[in-house]
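Hi U.,

Before I forget, here's the chain from the pilot set. I'm dumping it here mostly so it's searchable later in email.
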Amino acid sequence: MGTPRSQGSADLFAAAAQEVKKSGAPLADRMRPRTLDEYIGQAAILGEGRILRRILENEAAAQHDSDAPRRPLPSLILWGPPGTGKTTLANLIAKAADAQFVMFSAVSSGVKEARETIEAARQRLMFERRRTILFVDEIHRFNKAQQDAFLPAVEDGTIALLGATTENPSFEINGALLSRCRVFVLRALEPAELGTLLDRALADAERGLGAEPAELEPEAREIFCELAGGDARSALNALELAARVAPKGENGRRLIGAELAKEALQRNTILYDRSGEEHYNLISALHKAVRNSDPDASLYYLARMIAGGEDPVFLARRLVRIASEDIGLADPQALVQAVAAKEAVELIGYPECDAALAQAAVYLACAPKSDALYKAIGAAKAEVERSGPLPVPLHLRNAPTGLMKAQGYASGYDYDHHYPEHIGPMESMPEPLRGTRFFEPGALGFEKDLQKRLEWFAKVRARLREGRAPEA
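Structure:
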């Protein structure tokens, strides 16, 4: 066994912690975990035996063995909501690997800076035998040119790309780069995990609030844990704000009550991106809640999207689609309600149009459901794709010219209104499709009546084709 390769990363980490303390950084930054043991949450990717934990442990062990091979570091994408420990985990990986940790801004840096960074990493690897971790926070802001610039360096191991993002990488990162990275999903922290972080911050006199003792009333602690939305940064910084203004009790400790906790937390911002994954998640949930005949869930997801600033016309258009796709002729008024809501949206806009959207959503959720119409048009389109442009039967064609009449256009057409029941015996389908049915009404709502009508139509046509007299 050899001696440790370098204490540089550990020294830098300690120095950085002291600098953070001196600079008056927010509590969340001061309490950032310095070791894997201090890290809270994400057991699914960092639990015992998990691959990411094994990578960290193997890299840390290699620092104490000069003969241990230094393999290329894997490129990783850390995907999760705000305040779940993505940046902290990136720092811990760099520390464990004793690698040069380089921050790259996807907003302020371009391809020129990317190439300079890669060349510096190549020189570092060649002459210092030291690997480089390139960390890009909010990597979904990478443009295509930046992504392409890093691709060869990631491919040949010159750099290990470590990206953090709150957005679904499938939507934001090109396939070539994504295929060379392992994606790890971080989850919002559980209330119990947030509670552990809060307790640790209250007790830590060096980096936390322990030097000026503060304590949480049980209800206040529950508020921080439940209403922070799994966001450790938000919970810790709100705790610091509350502790700063909390009155001192008789024991000299600052006591944080429930009302102060609510005021400090101020969880008013709705996590929503009108072009990102949450947009698709919520509109999918709204559609499926309506289809599931659940008006309360429908209103909830509608309210989520309204609160997030979703375009009301987009919402109205989806409701119009639902009216035909999931209800159809089981309740013909569904489409009327949805279209009326769309007109109201275009007429008055936010905030007044929210009630019209709610009215349509609730009506659709409570309507009888049928996908018969949706399946019927799908089947008809599939038949067109299969059989191609079959000729329209001559008797259904117009004959505006003498030549067309001579060719047999309109010949043999039966005018339905000439018959007592206003139904004629003729066939309307092209010859190869005679007898084909696309629309099969359901057994609910108005479609039940439509099924009776269709059966009567068939009975009348059959009688006329057989030359029998109408029934009395």
